[in-house]
Write a structure and sequence with these properties.
This protein is an alpha/beta fold and 452 residues long. The chain folds into four domains: 125 residues, Methylthiotransferase, N-terminal domain (Rossmann fold, 3-Layer(aba) Sandwich); 115 residues, 2-Layer Sandwich (Transcription Regulator spoIIAA); 87 residues, Transcription Regulator spoIIAA (2-Layer Sandwich), CATH 3.30.750; 61 residues, Beta Barrel (OB fold (Dihydrolipoamide Acetyltransferase, E2P)). 33% of the residues lie in helices and 21% in strands. The chain contains twelve helices and 19 strands. A six-stranded parallel β-sheet has the order 2-1-3-4-5-6, sandwiched between helices. Strand 5, helix 4 and strand 6 form a beta-alpha-beta unit. Helix 11 runs parallel beside helix 12. The chain is globular. The protein binds S-adenosyl-L-homocysteine, iron/sulfur cluster and FE3-S4 cluster. Iron/sulfur cluster (SF4) binds next to helix 5.
């Protein structure tokens, strides 16, 4: 191979990402920076010259998985001391984690947080030149940094950050402490990014934020979230717009109307409810009641009857009684979610709920969790069954992960569809007739004769 002047020629990197879409998007930025420095991706984290773990702290399990993964890198560091082990993300914004790293994980070279990702190339260069350790954590995010590189994970769909941080302080949640206060990107910066994505062949964008429908509330510009959606829907080439995550308390009639009027906005919303008990919702500081939530669902369905609704639910929040839990069971019957992410309440250090005395015993949490998941799955299956025989438009993403002889994509409502067809149609939106339904996916046949 020919040598060039790039001193990182042939050096490789690996990024392990835990957590939400925000973290996935941050990892795309880190990968983009590394590639600009001349690194190439290496699927094996133990063999990479730079191994990064981008962490999540939303539940205790996420913390545990991080320490497990980091433990695996000890050997790699012993065998090849020139390897750089870097850790970043939400866990690093907590002092007790930094203390643990210092005391028990001496093979870590670089620690940075959620607010200084843009400094990563500089920090890495320092490490490579000086060969010392660096811990650099910022308490708050400063101005939003635009124009960072990114290596996008998918060719046809892309995540687009529209805001950072969270001001809601739900009493169970660590995110406001790890991601800082709410800051919205300027609409013109977002439009510029989406235009570039469209030019590179992206068909579907997902607007990201912890609470996207409060976009622009702390503002220096007049547009709100719905205005932003309309601005983006004017961009040629973009065919589908989604967003993650919206908060029920900020769900405006204007946004509900946009589901009806804006063709590119997908008939699909993820609207975390957390609990069906108004009493528990108040203790969670969610700022809506069970009835408020049900009214929103009614309005959404009145605007777009076929809208697919998904949610997040926590079982075993401190003080949750059987009666409270039954309110959740009642809510899921009334809403009939297309699917739901369910979580066992997990105590997070530094959050208000950590101090709540009435923690629910583990076995009660689990028993409720199982009851909830069983019923949610039955409902998902029933809804998916109603797709059988229907023809739906699918944005083809590529080869199916579970069956290499099939290709896969999603409906506008977010359902995963597997079917036979040529890989060359990836990136196109094609009609598929659903032949079989499962709990978490659909099987189908492509309608267009040319593609069979
Ligand atoms: N900003 C988003 C979600 C952030 S975290 C929102 O507000 O909807 C994703 C989900 O993790 C939350 O919706 C919640 O259901 C769950 N979660 C957050 N903290 C948790 C905790 N301490 N224990 C269990 N689940 C939690
Ligand atoms: Fe956490 Fe609540 Fe903010 Fe979501 S809205 S990130 S659950 S504090
Ligand atoms: Fe986890 Fe941080 Fe996202 S705590 S869920 S990675 S914002």
């Amino acid at each position: 191979m020919k040598k060039d002047n790039n001193r990182n020629y042939n050096k490789s990197y690996n990024i392990t990402t835990f957590g939400c879409q925000m973290n996935e998007r941050d990892s795309e930025t880190l990968a983009g920076m590394l590639e600009e420095l001349g690194y190439v991706e290496n699927a094996n984290r133990k063999e990479a010259d730079v191994a990064i773990i981008n962490t999540c702290s939303v539940r205790e399990n996420a913390d545990k998985r991080f320490f497990g993964t980091l433990g695996q890198l000890k050997r790699a560091k012993e065998e090849r001391p020139e390897t750089v082990i870097a850790v970043c993300g939400c866990m690093m914004q907590q002092q007790h984690i930094i203390d643990t790293l210092k005391a028990k994980y001496p093979w870590v070279d670089l620690v940075f947080g959620t607010h200084n990702i843009h400094k990563f190339p500089e920090l890495l260069t320092n490490i490579l030149n000086e060969r010392n350790k660096i811990i650099d954590i910022w308490d708050e995010g400063g101005d939003i940094i635009e124009g960072l590189p990114a290596k996008r994970m998918h060719p046809f769909k892309a995540y687009v950050n529209i805001m950072y941080g969270c001001n809601n302080f739900c009493t169970y949640c660590i995110v406001p402490y790890t991601r800082g206060r709410e800051r919205s990107r300027h609409p013109e910066d977002i439009v510029r990014e989406v235009k570039t994505l469209a030019e590179s062949g992206v068909k579907e964008i997902t607007l990201l934020g912890q609470n996207v429908n409060s976009y622009g509330n702390i503002r220096e510009f007049p547009q709100d979230f719905t205005d932003l959606i309309y601005m983006l829907s004017d961009i040629d080439g973009i065919q589908r717009i989604r967003f993650m995550t919206s908060h029920p308390k900020d769900m405006s009639d204007k946004l509900i109307q946009a589901f009806k009027e804006c063709d590119k906005l997908c008939n699909n919303i993820h609207l975390p409810v957390q609990s069906g008990s108004t009493r528990i919702l108040a203790r969670m500081n969610r700022k809506y009641t069970k009835e408020d939530y049900l009214l929103l669902i009614k309005k959404l369905r009145a605007a777009v009857p076929e809208i697919a609704i998904t949610t997040d639910i926590i079982t075993g929040f401190p003080g949750e009684t059987e009666e409270d839990f039954n309110e959740t069971m009642d809510l899921i019957e009334k809403v009939r979610f297309d699917s739901a992410f369910t979580f066992l309440y997990s105590i997070r250090k530094g959050t208000p709920a950590e101090k709540y005395t009435e923690q629910v015993p583990e076995e009660v949490k689990h028993e409720r969790f199982n009851r909830l998941v069983n019923r949610l799955n039955d409902i998902s299956q029933e809804i998916n069954k109603s797709y059988e025989g229907r023809t739906v438009m699918v944005l083809v993403e590529g080869k199916s992960k579970t069956n290499p002889r099939m290709i896969t994509g999603r409906t506008e409502t977010g359902k995963l569809v597997n079917f036979k067809g040529p890989l060359e149609i990836a990136g196109q939106i094609v009609p598929v007739k659903i032949t079989e339904s499962k709990t978490f996916s659909l099987n189908g046949e492509i309608i267009d004769e040319n593609y069979r």
